[in-house]
Amino acid sequence: MTVTTPAVAPAGADVATLRVVGKQVQAEGVLTLDLAAPSGGRLRDWTPGSHVDLVLPNGLTRQYSLCGDRFDPTTYRVGVLLEPESRGGSAYVHRELAVGDVVGIGGPRNNFPLVPADTYLFVAGGIGITPLLPMVRQAEMLGADWRLLYGGRTRRSMAFLDELSAHGERVLVRPQDETGLLDLAGFLGGPRPGVRVYSCGPAPLLAAMEAACAEWPPYTLRTERFVAADGGAPARTAPFEVELARTGTTVTVDPGSTVLEALDRVGVEVLSSCRRGVCGTCETTVLAGRPDHRDALLDDDERAAGDCMYVCVSRSLDDRLVLDL
Amino acid sequence: MTVTTATATTATATTATATTATVPTSDVDPFSHEVLEDPLPMHAELRDAGPVVLLSRHDVFAMARYDEVHAALVDWQGFQSAAGVGMSNFRYEEPWRPPSLLLEADPPRHDAPRRVLQKVLGPRALRRLHERWRADAEALVDEVLAAGTEFDAVPALTSVFPLRVFPDAVGIGQEGRENLLPYGDHAFNAFGPSNDLVAKGAPRVAELSGWVAAQCRREALAPEGFGADIWAASDRGDITPEMAPLVVRSLLTAGVDTTVHGLSAVLYAFATHPDQWARLRSDPSLSRVAFDEAVRWESPVQTFFRTATTDVRIGDTVVPEGRKILMFLAAANRDPRRWADPDAFDLFRDPSGHVGFGMGIHQCVGQHVARLEAESLLTALARRVRTIELAGPTVRHHNNTLRAWESIPVRMTPA
Ligand code: HEM
Ligand code: FES
Fold this sequence. Notes:
The complex is a heterodimer.
Chain A: E1 2-4, H1 13-16, E2 17-27, E3 30-36, E4 50-55, E5 61-65, E6 76-81, H2 90-95, E7 102-110, E8 119-125, H3 129-141, E9 145-152, H4 161-165, E10 171-175, H5 176-179, H6 184-188, E11 195-201, H7 203-212, E12 221-225, E13 240-244, E14 250-253, H8 259-265, E15 283-288, E16 291-292, H9 300-305, E17 308-310, E18 315-316, E19 320-323
Parallel strand pairs in A: 8-9, 8-11, 9-10, 11-12, 13-19
Antiparallel strand pairs in A: 2-3, 2-7, 3-6, 4-5, 4-7, 13-14, 15-17, 15-19, 16-18
Chain B: E1 3-10, E2 19-26, H1 33-37, H2 40-49, E3 53-55, E4 60-63, H3 66-74, E5 79-80, H4 111-120, H5 123-126, H6 130-147, E6 150-152, H7 153-158, H8 160-170, H9 180-189, H10 196-201, H11 205-215, H12 226-235, H13 244-254, H14 257-272, H15 274-282, H16 287-298, E7 303-308, E8 311-314, E9 317-319, E10 324-328, H17 329-332, H18 367-384, E11 385-390, E12 395-398, E13 403-407, E14 409-414
Parallel strand pairs in B: 2-3, 4-10
Antiparallel strand pairs in B: 1-2, 3-4, 5-7, 6-14, 7-10, 8-9, 11-14, 12-13
Helix pairs in contact in B: 6-18, 9-11, 12-13, 14-16, 16-18
The complex binds protoporphyrin IX containing FE and FE2/S2 (inorganic) cluster.
């Protein structure tokens, strides 16, 4: 096979917006979106368990787990469940969003990383299969011992069954209308060392997992709650102002440029390196205003603290940000 | 050196794939003493020869232009590290030590150790060191200037400061710290061919490796520090307890010589560019930019190799699967296709995007540590020193991977 090395990916704007290049129905109420950079260049690297923030054309921001192939550097895939109660997130994705549309992107970030182990037990509930799918592939690649228990309402509502069926007996598919509630205790077996248990799904499943793993060695169980709620402030598409506290200068950042570029235009140089929110070089202290974090570095607590931002990609939720520059 | 554009058949006993392509070929040995003394003319010739060049002496491919080096650095799928980032191909040759879990690993195995170190050495984690390192730098500069204003900057300053602050930050004991530089020097030589520089280090390999391994054990590390943080991550299961000592080893290998030579580079740059020193003195907040500009200009880490995971097309050449490719970070950092007036050390320039710390998933995880060391030392010097000039002939230190100084005699006038 001959591959051509992609040209150097342009910085900034290219990673901040992605184009929908595929939209496929995977199961009843579940579809996948394939996303690529408008230039077709490399996207930010990711690891299994990662999610991205998608800023939809209607202004809402939603988080989705990546469920594609990390060895494909130019495409992200996310799985989206149509929430019956949706107020514009998943309903918008299912009904309005079309191939060719452009979405804003933050991350990928990973709060649910796959740590090294000899044995993995995966438990998915419904759309919670999405972050586990790349984990399953990775466990297989590493030659680890692994099994997956996958529950859903009905067989027809459960995505990716075709791909998973290739793994034979390692995968237990358990639609609730056929087999009832998941037999967690039977699947997990007795507490033992050397095992990592990963689970993603609705809150009742995760609570049951916590209870089922109570006697296991600490740090055995890792969970990610599938957040269905349509929350979160809408991303702003209007320009915002950045005030530089040390000089009193104010710069306007319009939707088409990054804070880093806007600062550069007024001669304020902030050292940068990757310009994709992954290396940490351009970290800048925030004195006032709420940053709209688009980097792949800060964890949830650090984001909530709001005291610093990576100006190569992150933006502002408020009309004005004050930076320690 | 001769560069010829010939129709070369590039096949070795180790690869089944043979490819016939027009690839510029050079007989230069980048690891010869002549080139190590001054690699700049070779960098220019290799850049001009083409996007990729076959180095016939070692039968490896090489890239010296910014775009190609950058593209290879970020493309971990096509250019792997797990077959070694030196000339030796781990697919066929036994590594001289257990491979690094970071530098010499590919995803997925690279993921967990990288995630742990990125947090332990991240800008936020380093905040607690700012004050202490600044004070340490000021104390050292005072000490040195009190002893005299004319001295050799390498033994007096640039190799002293990192060795004073970094081993403490990792949390290793006081004893045997003099082993760190020779160990690192050998590790960086070992990325090259097995030439005289590697032979020079060979007699002490077992002893030095043993000492380093002993420092990485949990019992040997202070209860607070990067080392303890790494072991704590293994308690949480983020890495396994078997991985922890090797992750600590990465710090001890990659974190000492590199910063010593990085600081030497910036000091030499200022000693030879008095106008730039004056500019730094008028605005010490430029010290961050100054250090990165020096890392671009001098590239303390000159080269790393990758291995093609598939037949990779670079320009008109197909590099066959399994072949080694040498990336000249230093040549990329002075590529006139990317940088205006690349040979100038210039604080007005924005050095952002240089590849002196690499790029992509293996980009230097210690870069914020290196920058903090440099910022601390430069700020202290800018406050106390009005002028820096060379006070005698400088002497290079040759290493297969590092661009280094043995001696930089300087004269400083206190402010
Ligand atoms: C001026 C000083 C330094 C320079 C020029 C430098 C340069 C580099 C370069 C070019 C790479 C990329 C290797 C590759 O792509 O294969 C790298 C990786 C690395 N550096 Fe540094 N480095 C410096 C300081 C440090 C320090 C202070 C530490 C430790 C605290 C450190 C630890 C590492 C480690 C562990 C890696 C491997 C990362 C990975 O593969 O994921 N370096 N460094
Ligand atoms: S430049 Fe790398 S995070 Fe902004």
